[in-house]
Design brief:
With 299 residues, the chain is of the alpha+beta class. It has twelve helices and 14 strands. A five-stranded antiparallel sheet has the order 4-5-10-6-7, covered by helices on one side. The protein has a four-stranded antiparallel sheet with strand order 11-12-13-14. It has a three-stranded parallel sheet with strand order 1-3-2, with no helix packed on it. Bound molecules: flavin-adenine dinucleotide. Flavin-adenine dinucleotide (FAD) binds next to strand 2, helix 3, helix 7, helix 8 and strand 10. Flavin-adenine dinucleotide binds at residues 37-45, 47, 63, 83, 110-111, 115, 118-120, 122-124, 126-127, 132-133, 179-180, 207.
Length: 299
């Protein structure tokens, strides 16, 4: 009986139409009526629809044949990562390894090899989980999202800072008629260093209980242009302006590190859930901020 109920629900929830376009020119008009669901690797979408937490729109658009969404390339102003780039592709990219190593480090903590082969950066960003592993390093790298739509005959492109993109768990500033086409990273300033740290309740294949990214320009032992981001401690991945201010321009000595860690612990107000209590998450933020800053100092 249970199986019967489930399959009826699945039929009711199934999309009415399926498309697998091979170009943005073909794909974007399919999004015009605002009732399309986009499929990349499917590693979030399929479990969510199976569990009934997400309903398909009337049209399912498979993005995986659109070559314009692939690739990781250096541009005049920085690096452009196509929305379809998989976690494996990010890990193999020399461009990222050189100028955005903190993103590659985060990939190293991401799920399993099978998942990394299917999961995309675009899916991680658009799924907007507060615990999404790529979101913290992308915030530290000051990433922007590039969104495309086609309201008429011309393509419209909109760029938005990633920190303004997240609106709540699973909610973003993307309009239903828009597709995320790329993540754009500015060229890092000279002497920029950044570190990422994820803590889960198991050493591998786990969703973050908290994650931390810290970056900045390190000169003569002091950090400037500081960027601090936390994951899994708020409804969205967040930048931490008070912790950044506690570090800005200061030498990374023991007193600065202890003060910044204490500010960090007080800057977050996490909830308790199955992965950790709010109290434990705050302690983790305090202790891991200290650990990451010591690591930056030792660079
Ligand atoms: C067993 C397991 C382990 C996991 N482990 C981790 C982990 O360690 N760390 C982690 O961060 N995540 C993890 N995840 C979650 C998931 O793998 C990632 O969030 C992944 O990056 C999602 O990418 P995808 O290509 O599979 O997205 P999909 O599932 O295809 O899509 C996710 C959402 O984004 C939308 N979307 C996708 N691409 C676009 C686009 N270009 N434009 C607009 N909307 C788009 C979809 O419509 C959907 O709403 C795990 C998932 C599973 C099942």
């Amino acid at each position: 009986m249970l199986t019967q109920d489930r399959s009826e629900a699945a039929v009711r929830a199934a999309p009415e139409r399926y498309f697998a376009p091979t170009s943005l020119e073909e794909a974007l008009p399919l999004l015009r009526d605002g009732n399309a669901t986009l499929l990349a690797g499917g590693t979030d979408l399929m479990p969510q629809t199976q569990a009934g937490r997400v309903r398909f729109g009337s049209t399912l658009v498979n993005l995986r044949h659109i070559a314009e969404l692939e690739g990781i390339a250096r541009t005049d102003g920085g690096i452009r990562i196509g929305a379809l780039a998989t976690i494996t592709a990010l890990m193999r990219s020399d461009v990222l390894r050189r100028d955005a190593g903190v993103l590659v480090d985060a990939c190293d903590h991401f799920a399993s090899a099978q998942l990394r082969n299917a999961a995309t950066i675009g899916g991680n960003v658009c799924n907007a989980s507060p615990a999404g592993d790529l979101l913290v390093p992308l915030l530290v790298l000051d990433a922007e999202v590039e969104l495309a739509s086609m309201p008429g005959s011309d393509r419209r492109i909109r760029r938005l800072a990633l920190r303004e993109f997240f609106r709540g768990p699973g909610r973003t500033a993307r309009e239903p008629s828009e597709m995320l086409v790329a993540i754009v990273l500015p060229a890092p300033p000279a002497d920029f260093v950044a570190r990422f740290c994820k803590f889960g309740t198991r050493p591998a294949l786990d969703i973050s209980a908290v994650s931390i990214g810290i970056g900045g320009v390190l000169r003569a032992g002091a950090l400037s242009g500081v960027r601090v981001a936390f994951g899994a401690v708020a409804p969205t991945p967040m930048r931490a302006p008070r912790t950044e201010a506690a570090l800005e321009g200061h030498r990374l000595d023991a007193a600065t590190i202890a003060h910044a860690a204490s500010v960090a612990g007080r800057e977050v107000h996490p909830i308790s859930d199955v992965r950790a209590s709010g109290w434990y998450r705050r302690e983790l933020i305090h202790n891991l901020t200290m650990r990451v800053l010591r690591d930056v100092h030792a660079t």
